[in-house]
Amino acid sequence: MAEKRTRTYIKDLKNFVGEKVTLKGWAYNVRSSGKVKFLVMRDGSGLCQCVFFKGGCDEDSFNNFETITQETSLEVTGVVQARPQSPGGFELSAETFKIYGKSVDFPITPKEHGTDFLMNNRHLWLRSKRQVAVLKVRARIVKAIRDFFDNDGFTLVDSPIFTPNACEGTSTLFQTNYFDLKAYLSQSGQLYNEAHAAALGKVYCFGPTFRAEKSKTRRHLIEFWMVEPEVAFNDIYDNMELAEKFVEYIVQCVIADCEEDLKTLERDIEKLKKIKAPFPRVHYKEAVEIIKKENPAFIDGDDFGGTDETIISSKFEKPVFVHHFPTAIKAFYMKEDPNEKGYTMSCDLLGTEGYGEVIGGGQREEDYDVLIEKIKEHKLNVEDFQWYLDLRKYGTFPHSGFGLGVERTVAWLCGLPHVRETIPFPRLYGRIYP
Ligand code: 4AD
Ligand code: MG
Asked: What are residue 414's phi and psi, to 5 degrees?
């Protein structure tokens, strides 16, 4: 057994049928029954069953098979066989194995564990099949996000993380020291993106954002990733068209490329296939009528709670835009509709199946004087916004944009009940470990 071995990834086994290869990875599952011993191995690219037959493999390997325990790291050498019934469609007729690292009493076993236990062991939980599938879908979503904008003439720009300004209200700001000054962690890259748009026309920023949300919900993280396009001379309607094309693109990429992962997650993809532009648009006032039928306690003028969003989205098979939210519940930068006093040119997109808001955005106030008034009304410090006001002083322009939350999108497309599984190490209210 001294022939040349090739280090192979499980996903590539189809190219090596009948050949001898070496897989390197971890033991996912082991079992023996007399003369035959089975090891399911994982290497990050897939799962492969390795079969050790007495007489067919190296004798020591057969006799020491029981030293392989769950999550032992090892390499296995053997001949690739096509086996349509086994996971991944291929199997290894194993000859030898070599252990790299033992794994004694791996805490996460196939039995059911409580959420707290799994969250405390998140660094190990990530290795499980479902978590791997979620992270693969997440990576595909991120690639789709970048591809969409890169292929549509947008320039990627980066907004800072340390900021002197509040963008999304002062109640969720994370304050930190910036030498002798105080600073906040960015809640959104939008304000800087408006400066980028004046320089480059069509831009997007993509990075982590931070909000001190003191509530435990299935939709809120303290640290989350947001992609934010901003387009010079787009109005609210152009903005919705951009958002629907963008969301359709992401969903269709995931359906096309993540079939196996979605299967692992038992996601009903028929529902996702229907996500094609155009999406329905509902005025805030219409949305209130819909909500009140099922939640009579809802007060006209209030922001939607999770249940209210679910009521609206349950009426549609596609994601739905709610636009023209009241000025009183929206951020200072939102433009008030000149034809509809008291209502902003804002638009949120609610995902299907009760997933709630995945996009928030709208048209920005471009008038210098109006904007100063808004900053004051929101009790923000005008000094801090001088640079932002300059954008209205030197060649102001109508413009619009939005932010899409990556984790809410991952939860939605994977069909997960909570955002905690959508990011490798979620930062949640009351949890920063591991
Ligand atoms: O609606 P939001 O607050 O909008 C903004 O921040 C705008 N400045 C974006 C823009 O116009 N450039 O947040 C945008 C999206 C939400 O729709 C949601 O998907 C996500 O960011 N999001 C969160 N995701 C997870 N945890 C949280 N705490 C989130 N807060 C917002
Ligand atoms: Mg919002």
From this structure: -85, -10
β-pair partners for 24: 75
| Bridge partners, residue 228, by sequence | 205
Q: How far is the CA of 334 from the centre of ligand 1 (A)?
A: 14
For atom 9 of ligand 1, the residue with the nearest CA is 403
**Ligand in nearest proximity to the CA of 400:** 1
The pairing of strands 356-363 and 346-351 is: antiparallel
Distances in Å between the Cα of 151 and the Cα atoms of 145, 246, 249, 298, 335 are 10, 11, 12, 42, 29
Ligand 1 close to Cβ of residue 358 (< 6 A): yes
Q: Where do the DSSP E strands lie in 250-318?
A: 281-283
For ligand 1, atom 20, which residue shows the shortest CA distance? Answer: 405
CB-ligand 1 contact for 361 (6 Å cutoff): yes
How much is the pTM?
0.97
Tokens, residue 32: 């023996």
How far out from the chain centre does Cα 109 lie? 26
CB 275 within 8 A of CB 247: yes
Ion ligand 2 contact residues with beta carbon within 5 A: 360
* Reported confidence tier of residue 2, pLDDT bands at 50, 70, 90: very low
Mutation probe of ligand 1 site: the residue of 154, 170, 186, 188 with most atoms within 8 A of C-beta: 188
Could you give phi then psi for residue 389, rounded to 5 degrees? -65, -30
Contact between 273 and 255 under an 8 Å Cβ cutoff? The reply is: yes
Alpha-carbon distance of 47 to 27, in angstroms, equals 10
**pLDDT single digits (tens) 280-302:** 999 999 999 999 999 999 999 99
Q: How much of the chain, in percent, has pLDDT values that exceed 70? A: 99
Q: Are 256 and 426 in contact (CB under 8 A)?
A: no
Q: How far apart are CA 130 and CA 149, in angstroms?
A: 29
Q: What span, in angstroms and rounded, lies between the C-alpha atoms of 37 and 197?
A: 62
Average pLDDT over residues 269-286: 98
Ligand 1 within 6 A of CB of 364 = no
Strand order in the sheet with 181-185: 162-163, 181-185, 175-178
**DSSP letters of 201-219?**
SEEEEEEEEE----S--SS
**Alpha-carbon span 418 to 347, nearest angstrom:** 24
3-state secondary structure at position 232: strand
- Note the ligand closest to the C-alpha atom of 208: 1
Cβ 176 vs Cβ 185: under 8 Å:
yes
Other C-beta atoms within 10 Å of 381: how many? 12
E strands, 301-425, where?
320-323, 346-351, 356-363, 399-405
